[in-house]
Amino acid sequence: GENVEQHPSTLSVQEGDSAVIKCTYSDSASNYFPWYKQELGKGPQLIIDIRSNVGEKKDQRIAVTLNKTAKHFSLHITETQPEDSAVYFCAASKKAGGYQKVTFGTGTKLQVIP
Amino acid sequence: GAVVSQHPSRVICKSGTSVKIECRSLDFQATTMFWYRQFPKKSLMLMATSNEGSKATYEQGVEKDKFLINHASLTLSTLTVTSAHPEDSSFYICSASGVPGAHGYEQYFGPGTRLTVT
């Protein structure tokens, strides 16, 4: 099955600096890569996603890149703010029957220091 | 748009009893709903996938007789933990896919239910 690795497990940055989280996946059939932000005691919130036919996508301060050949994808957050502090999960998704099956990474706890 | 709710948000039950958790898509019809379990400081583990009117598909190692899933309509799925034991204590999260206009890959998550079995 799919295996998604995520690094680092924890990340502390100063407010205003950039944060980068990296993930790798193993299954070449994965075709959709969402990123989720999870605050303490809450469900994950989809923040950005990318499909396998796209190399890069940006939404304001958040960007995601995908290297399909190397099976790497990354999340970039620029101009970090304290409210960006949360746990971030990458995920790889592939078609399984009539739906997309999602495998999550292990999570990165991001702390933005004011 | 794409709001998913869960009820209850927290539940405490005694060992041996059953607990039902509801998951609702509030502003869209969810063709597929998913149930996850999350241990403290860990990632989400998929338990099962369900389509409206069909039997749920359980992941390997998940006991289908213990975790009963009913996807009664396009906006409601329920997870019943039967004969709960302390080791079933966890954070249970549902998600739904099928937002109109989207490519259908996105899953939108509920806020989760904290189950504590005493």
Strand content range of chain A: over 45%
Q: What's the order of the H and E elements of chain B?
A: EEEEEEEEEEE
Number of strands of chain B: 11
The outline of chain A comes out as: globular
This entry's quaternary arrangement is heterodimer
Radius of gyration of chain B: 14 Å
By secondary-structure content and strand pairing, the structural class of chain B works out as mainly beta
- Name the overall outline of chain B: globular
The average pLDDT of chain B is: 91
C-alpha end-to-end distance of chain A: 41 Å
Structural class of chain A: mainly beta
The number of distinct helices of chain A, counting runs of at least 4 residues, comes to 0
What does this structure look like?
The complex is a heterodimer of chains A (114) and B (118). Chain A is mainly beta. Chain A has strands spanning 4-7, 10-14, 19-25, 32-38, 45-51, 56-59, 62-67, 72-77, 86-96, 99-104, 108-113. In chain A, strands 2, 4, 5, 9, 10 and 11 form a six-stranded mixed beta sheet that branches. In chain A, strands 1-3-8-7-6 form a five-stranded antiparallel beta sheet, with no helix packed on it. In chain A, a hairpin with a 4-residue loop joins strand 7 (62-67) and strand 8. The mean pLDDT of chain A is 95. In chain B, strands 2, 4, 5, 6, 9, 10 and 11 form a seven-stranded mixed beta sheet that branches. By secondary structure, chain B is an all-beta fold. Chain B is globular and about 40 Å long. Chain B is built from no helices and eleven strands. At the A-B interface, strand 4, strand 5 and strand 10 of A face strand 5, strand 9 and strand 10 of B.
